[in-house]
Amino acid sequence: MTRLTVLHTNDLHGRLSSERANAVQSIRRTIDHASLLFDAGDAVTAGNITYKRSGEPILDLMSTVGYDGMVVGNREFHVWERGFVSKLALARFPILSANIRRRDGGMPLPCMPSHTYYVDGRRITTLGLTVPMVTEQMAVRRLSAYLFDDPIETAARLVPSLRQECDMLICLSHIGFEHDRCLAEQVEGIDLIIGGHSHTTLPQGESRGRAMIVHAGSHARWLGRVDLEIGDRVSIVSAELLPL
């Protein structure tokens, strides 16, 4: 049996101050077993038109804090390649989104679909899903270097193969709470959905079928904590929100 604690934030919108960052690190240091720290998107303050060519300072701070990964939120996305790359450049951890693709069909992307962590011999795989910003049906697609596929359809396509290769499957989701519910109900095989976009506060999470859905509000007010055990299957021991 492997004990694991997953810490999570979402929709920081640039509000992760140095004091709150220190609080996250302090909380993590109290954990006497394996832990992972994730963000469910919209960490940055910039919108979808402007961007900082030098990168987003909050992603540098999150790297220093020790974040292990995050999903692309709508605030991290940009329709131009140089804008998208610049926004993510200062992150020193995996940034995920499985339902973003280049409009010209080329590679590479500044993000990856999934990533696997090895924790005490267990394989913990994360899959990223982002709210669609530009789709084939939108006229604006001609101005965008990227297109988005339906996130739940993307998960349904990828989860069966990912599930075969891991001991636990986590979805980092920036599609909103109601869509997370649909994801949990329609796609079998996800153990934990760490969500964002809707700024939902779930003090103890919500179970839907196999999956536990957790959201930590917004603006760095809360740090989510999920304690679990991994054996033949994943057992969620507790889910809570800790004030920052």
- Element string (H = helix, E = strand): EHEHEHEEEEEHEHEEEEE
Task: State the CATH topology.
Answer: Purple Acid Phosphatase, chain A, domain 2
Gyration radius, in Å: 17 Å
**Helix/strand/pairing category:** alpha/beta
Q: Describe the sheet with the most strands.
A: 6 strands, mixed
Our count of helices gives: 5
- The dominant shape is globular
Q: Trace the largest sheet across and list its strands.
A: 4-3-2-1-13-14
CATH architecture: 4-Layer Sandwich
Please give the alpha-carbon distance between the first and last residues.
Answer: 31 Å
Q: β content, as a range?
A: 25-35%
What's the number of structural domains?
A: 1
Mean pLDDT: 95
Total DSSP E strands: 14
Unreliable residue runs:
none
**Could you name the CATH class?**
Alpha Beta
User: What do we call the CATH homologous superfamily?
Assistant: Metallo-dependent phosphatases
Strands, helices and their partners?
Layout: E1 2-9, H1 18-29, E2 34-39, H2 57-65, E3 69-71, H3 81-88, E4 95-96, E5 100-102, E6 114-119, E7 122-130, E8 146-148, H4 151-164, E9 168-174, H5 177-186, E10 192-195, E11 206-208, E12 211-214, E13 222-230, E14 234-243
Parallel strand pairs: 1-2, 2-3, 3-4, 7-9, 9-10, 10-12
Antiparallel strand pairs: 1-13, 5-8, 6-7, 11-12, 13-14
